[in-house]
Design goal:
16 strands; alpha/beta; elongated; homodimer; five-stranded mixed beta sheet; Dihydrofolate Reductase, subunit A; Cytidine Deaminase, domain 2; 10 helices
């Protein structure tokens, strides 16, 4: 339990903490979605994850669940425990010290300047063994929104495409129901629930009046804010908005008024750290042209369409060499007879 | 060795026979490409495969290699041994009987009316144990050309596409070098070597002057005949041709004069049982419209192109429901950072 380097048990418990962190991905902005597992004598005595809106923090929740059982135990946290007291709660580093935890394993150092190593230092000063950088890559992906906001002053963007084998998203008449099957469409709804905002272009908005909600049992309360990309103003303007938000339009569903932005860069002003871009082809192209796509979800059905509507419009690709090396396959799975591939931006891709 | 039903050893030896059968796939028309393994006392005593042009047959080759060692052994053959004597050689059923083989395991019954069960009957009448339908599906795929010729009076057709993730095969200016990487392109050449004929549309022929040969070490003698699909006559006509072949055009490479056909149905007249359709989009669409594609090879590079040239033109798809259920994923593999997916026509798909 006191090892100063990571063990295989450590990686296993961290994987459990990362799974907890996923529970509120897309609902903690501007806070990171953190997961925490407290282990004492080989068993879990407390579990926590950042609550919707950002508080309580994961460590506070896990410690509250553990009570005195945390003493002498080990805390697995996906992000460095915070070192700053806030009006909304005490510093998690202090809570861990007060609970008598003997060891803390951390996936990722917190880039927030109020912490940024001082949480780790405070734990060590209290005699706690601290191990860092355990499953750091997975933690970066889990908290992509928080980290992209810190590093690039904008949300993390996922572009979703649902295509035929030959890359078409609709027939020439626009019909697209359905290309992918029920399992793939349910997975799209699960991905929606992990994002703060769902974005479509005005064309899709007006043609389909999409609900853009989460229609999964038990997750219907998680429907993200809706955002429309349009270079023209919305049909009617109402509420006061951040500078680059044009306005809120009428909501054809009578709920969740959409936010309107006039360029992909407008996502920086959204109160969202994870944005899910769903289409159509011009919107996908606009985000690619602005180099604002971090992650690509490609749902593919085993069908051919031929002449139809292509998934992505012109995003200004000059030559084939420039297309290579930008995307790396991260995950793939079967969803019924469809297949999901998840790609992420490569490190060598320009930011 | 005398089992009258298949054992796991049988399936293993049949897999070896199927691998041998692949050696001359695309070079035995109008004969099937058959593989044969002779096993005695647990070891291989002879191996054979249909030789280019169709003779000797696989069994004759394997028996010649085994000599007296075949006596009492077991023959694994991917197709029912022939029962008819031809000017080019004796019936393989008779050869197996004469060699004193005790058991014959067969993947597939021969639909040729000159055999069609009579090979099996003759073996059994001679006291040989015969087991049938071992790895029959794999054998059907291996001899797809021969069987399609028998069942549909035309060659088996493979359509190859090499696309970006978004289904594009070129930039708007037509440039397509390179979308896929070296490993995928080498695999295309390997597939070419397994086909009697490579077909492109006139647009591709005139734009790229493609060599359409097999540029792999040790396989350069296997370059298939070249076929051009064109509704207009070729630039110059020369040799006498089957009825629906328009003519032979000038060969920009100075060798292997291409055959020209004026419609996809023209493949029926080619002296080929396996046709490899390589493009472009109009040609792919023509074959899909005629419902003449049996197998789809999809090479995909992890790049996005956006506005470019789509892989497949209009093939007359009326609605999305009609697109479903026609293709089944058979195999997938990584080729460098690219991915190959192999689809086959489903049984429920109209013939």
């Amino acid at each position: 339990m006191g090892a100063v380097t990571a063990t295989s048990d450590d990686r296993r418990w961290m994987a459990a903490a990362l799974a907890l962190a996923e529970r509120t991905r897309g609902r903690t902005a501007p806070n990171p979605n953190v997961g925490c597992v407290l282990v004492a004598a080989g068993r879990v005595v407390g579990r926590g994850w950042t609550q919707p809106g950002g508080r309580p923090h994961a460590e506070a929740m896990a410690l509250a669940a553990a009570g005195p059982a945390a003493r002498g135990g080990c805390a697995y946290v996906t992000l460095e425990p915070c070192a700053h007291v806030s009006p909304r709660g005490p510093a998690c580093a202090d809570l861990l010290i007060a609970a008598g935890v003997a060891r803390v394993v951390i996936a990722l150092r917190d880039p927030d300047p109020r912490t940024d190593g001082s949480g780790i230092a405070r734990l060590r000063a209290a005699g706690i063994t601290v191990v860092t950088d355990v499953a750091g890559d997975a933690a970066r992906r889990s908290m992509a929104g928080f980290l992209t906001r810190r590093e690039r002053s904008r949300p993390s963007v996922t572009l979703k495409l649902a295509t035929s084998l030959d890359g078409q998203i609709a027939l020439p008449d626009g019909s697209s129901r359905w290309i992918t099957g029920a399992a793939a469409r349910a997975h799209v709804h699960l991905e929606r629930s992990r994002h703060d905002a769902i974005l479509v272009g005005r064309g899709t908005w007006e043609a389909d009046a999409p609900r853009l909600d989460v229609r999964l049992p038990g997750l219907s309360d998680r429907s993200p804010m809706r955002v429309v990309l349009s270079t023209r103003p919305p049909p009617s303007a109402s509420a006061a908005l951040p500078s680059s938000l044009i306005g809120r339009g009428n909501d054809p569903q009578g709920a969740r008024d959409p936010l309107w932005i006039d360029s992909p860069a407008g996502i920086a002003t959204l109160p969202a750290d994870h944005v899910f871009v769903e289409g159509g082809a011009a919107t996908a192209a606009a985000f690619l042209r602005a180099d604002l796509v971090d992650r690509l979800l490609l749902y593919r059905a085993p069908i051919l369409i031929g002449a139809g509507k292509a998934a992505i419009g012109d995003f200004g690709l000059g030559d084939l060499a420039a297309a290579h090396g930008r995307w790396r396959l991260l995950d793939a799975r079967d969803l019924g007879t469809d297949r999901l591939e998840v790609y992420e931006r490569t490190p060598c891709s320009p930011a």
